Each structure stands twice: as structure tokens, then as C-alpha cells.
TrEMBL record:
The lineage of its organism: Eukaryota, Metazoa, Chordata, Craniata, Vertebrata. It comes from Catagonus wagneri (Chacoan peccary). GO terms for cellular component: cytoplasm; nucleoplasm. Residues 26-106, 121-195, 390-462 form the RRM domain. This is RNA-binding protein 45. GO terms for biological process: cell differentiation; nervous system development. The gene is RBM45. Transmembrane segments: none annotated. Gene3D superfamilies: 3.30.70.330.
Amino acid sequence: MDEAGSCASGGGFRPGVDSLDEPPNSRIFLVISKYTPESVLRERFSPFGEIQDIWVVRDKHTKESKGIAFVKFARSSQACRAMEEMHGQCLSPNDTKPIKVFIAQSRSSGSHRDVEDEELTRIFVMIPKSYTEEDLREKFKVYGDIEYCSIIKNKVTGESKGLGYVRYLKPSQAAQAIENCDRSFRAILAEPKNKVSESSEQDYYSNMRQETVGHEPRINMFSFEQQSEFSSFDKNDNRGQEAISKRLSVVSRVPFTEEQLFSIFDIVPGLEYCEVQRDLYSNYGHGVVQYFNVASAIYAKYKLHGFQYPPGNRIGVSFIDDGSNAADLLRKMATQMVAAQLASMVWNNPSQQQFLQFGGSSGSQLPQIQTDIVLPSCKKKAPPETPVKERLFIVFNPHPLPLDVLEDIFCRFGNLIEVYLVSGKNVGYAKYADRVSANDAITTLHGKILNGVRLKVMLADSPREESNKRQRTY
């Protein structure tokens, strides 16, 4: 389509080619009469906000209008409101055919379709983990009528992940929320539900070619720390005030898919989830990555900040302040590392257990359990002669926990008969006198890290199916 534009003689700011879609969704596409002059367009659309430019598409040879025009607004909410109120209207009393108004697709996109309304009404926000859906609705209802709110929760624990969605009835309301809400919410347009972009590969590489030509980076709506991340990728840069958490923000000048984001950050063990976000105010790629522990997040931040993917495009990685106490997180991480080293030393050389004693004669041989999960209080073991109702199979990575620590962990669910390790293997077993207690242990401990060791806890095979040659060690 030839966009032979014409700007109003009134002057004013005219955006360059690189600014046509900044902020995104601020340009509307019009199907009008071939005889509609630009002055009428300016008169009818200026009440909705600041118009930066108007383009009437004309034939290259005859210079006659093709009945198509574009209007560029300063804000996305202005363009959305113009679409909502002018679509299906007649521009003048003499017009018999109503005009059509859509939000224009980004010029950098490989797709030529116009943006659909439902893509513009749902926003993605970062919220305190203490927020309920009612709290979320209360914060965002000032911007318009809300269809629904939802909070992303951990499927196992039911706890909030500090992320949520707000769906409005109108695109202009969602745009108003993004433009005016507190920046701590980092509100952006959410990706459409159950939708896979047919041109994702084309979008990805077309944007890569555009961004590597040498254009200056565009302003983004995210935190100021991220903006500086693109200007310097010095890994020795020590930001004393930077928050530390298990959650990372990822920014790229080239859009990426969730699969690409996962493949990059899954290099570091402990990845819990990742999610690609859509930013209303830039064409950058944005994503959120969360790890099970702060050690993995710190390592990923250090190793992947400035990583080139694809070659020539550097990604920026920064911590997202989720309200966690950085000193506590670092102390817990250091304690886990020391505990893991001590446990490894004991496992490889049992004679070194004496070095774990505190105070020489106190008899306390192991540090306290260090983990991010909440464990029940200690309970008494069941008598050794109690019938076994359920056996659990335990896998340790990178090495087994000391036996008394293991017993301390698994007895907290009640009805534990015994726990033991398989000699020379990174596996062990726990016997319970009650199936409910065994299932509680699986639910709480499977996949979790305790004292620097990741556990896999699952139901064991029946004794008949196992080798009789297996020996247990104490």
C-alpha cells in the first residue's frame, strides 16, 4: 500500500518514520470517501487529542485519493477513543457512506491486518503478592469499566506470583490505565489468549534487521534502571542500590517468543517460569523470568545480561523488586551454599563430621534447615514395628543430605517410621505409617531445595518390584 502522505499546512510536530508507532497503537487507519479533504479529517478527529500528522493515501500517478487515510495521535488512548466513537459515523451531512476506523498495525510487523479490539482491552500488571482480585479491581476501576480481574497463582501452593490481568470493556480504558497508573505496576498490553502469531518468525527477523541499522534505542515505559542497561553492559558494574530478587525483567530491542525466552534462561538451573509481555509504549521485546531460588537468579543476571541473542542484539536483564529483603536473600543463599559444601564434605568423608560440631562438646552436628518453603513443626516418629502404609523414593541433586537432617525434614509430616540412604547412590527412602502424611511430604518437598540440595520425592515401587540386592546404610 502506498502511503503518499500529506501533512496539514498548519505545521506542528511531524513524526519521523521511526516514530510512527510510538507509542504503539497511536495511529488509526481510515476508510473514507475519495473526496474527503484532509481539513475535514483534522476537524472531526482533533477533539479526541493531539494530532501529530495526517496521511491521505494517493495514487502515485494521478495524485487522487484512494479513499484511505491515517491519523497519528500523540497518545494511544486518544487513538482508541477516536476509533470507538468515529467508527461507523459519517464525516459530513452530505456523506451517505459511514467511515471505517481501526487501530493501524505496526509498520514493523510482518502482518498486514489491523489490530482487533479484543487485543487492546486486556492489560498485564505486576502487583504485590498480598493483592487479592478485589484489591486489583479497586486500583484499576478508576480508568474504566472492568470486565474481569485475575491473579496468576502457583498451581501447587495457590500463592500469588505477583502478576495479574485486568480486562476492560473498551480499548481506550485499557490504554488510559497503562498511561496513567503507577509505574510500579509496569502495566502493558497482554498477549491475546490462546493465540499464536502466524508471522512471529517474520516479525522477529524483520525487527532484527531494522534495529541493527543503527537507529537510536527508543524510550521504553519500564524502570529507569532498564534504560541504563542498554547503554552499558559492563558486568563489573556494581549497582549498590539495585534490588535483588528471584524475579528478572528481560528487555530486548528485538521481540522474542516465550519459547525463545525459555531456551535462553533455562540454561541456568532452577527456572520456575517465564512469560513474554507486550509493551504498549515501545516495540521492544519484554519478558519476566522467575527462578526457584535467588542464587539462580543472580547467576542468570550476571551471565545473561548483555548476552547477544540473536547475534548483534544484546538483551538487558535486571532484577524486579518484589519486596523481598535483599540482605535476607543473600544471607539465605550464602547459608545454603555453606550447608551444601559441608554436607558434601561429610558425605565424601564421614570422618570429617567432627568439623561440623559447634562448641566442641555440644553434640550439635548440623546447621539448621535452610529453605524457601514453609515446613511443619517437628513431630514424633512412629514406632519401628508400625506397619508401613506408604514408601517414598527420594532423589538428591547434587548429593544426599546427611541422615539426621533428612530425618528432621521428613518427620515433620507425622507418622514417619524411618528414612534411609542407599549406599553409594544419590537416592534414599522414607517409610510412613500413614498415606496422608506421605502425600503431604510429596506435595511440600518435591522439586524443592533444602540446604542447597534439590529433592525429588515420589511414591516408591512395591518391594517386590525392587532388587533384593539393595542395601541401606545408616
